[in-house]
Amino acid sequence: MSGLELLVALAIAVGLVGILVPVLPGSVLILGGVLVWALDLGSTTAWVCFAGVSVILVAGGVVKYLVPNSRLRNAGVPNSTQWIGAAVGIVGFFVIPVMGLFLGFVAGVYAAERHRVGPQAWSSTKASLSAVGLSILIELCAALAATMVWIGGVIAT
After folding, report:
1. Continuous segment of H or E residues that includes residue 101
2. How many CB atoms within 10 Å of residue 91?
């Protein structure tokens, strides 16, 4: 394995961590790493591998938003609740680094739903947390599949 391949593997590993801890742009790091690898090699195999990784990550990105949003719609949770949760999560990130993002999101969603529906707010909050978890899982699965495609490309070249 070359030095560049080790750096790309590191970028992919950081990208995978970035998906689980939404501070880093995980899929973008993975795509960028594979692009650098394809540019360096310049072979047909490398570009086919990059195309496959691109398709997987874009498809994962689309599904990551469509599936959880439809579940939230079915649960009756409005988009405004998610936006409030995201805004409070961002503030929380700066108040309590990293963990504040999660705590702030939960607190923001709960407060918005408590204001909207009253004591039944916890069921909406659970639906929102489930949707966020599903979104992360979908993106992680796509990123792992893209990683496997890259590993196959490394082996093939």
Report:
1. helix 99-117
2. 15
Residue 20 is predicted with a pLDDT of 86
Smallest Cα–Cα separation from 144: which of 19, 50, 32, 39? 19
> In sequence order, which residues have a C-beta less than 8 Å from that of residue 85 and are 6 or more positions away?
104, 105, 106, 108, 109, 112, 128
CA 110 from centroid of its chain's CA atoms: 22
Sequence-distant (≥ 6) Cβ neighbours of residue 156 within 8 angstroms: 45, 49
Residue 17 has pLDDT above 80, yes or no: yes
With CA atoms as reference, report the closest residue to 93 among 19, 22, 16.
Answer: 22
> In the structure encoding, which two tokens stand for residue 132, read together?
């966020």
Could you tell me the pTM of the whole model? Answer: 0.81
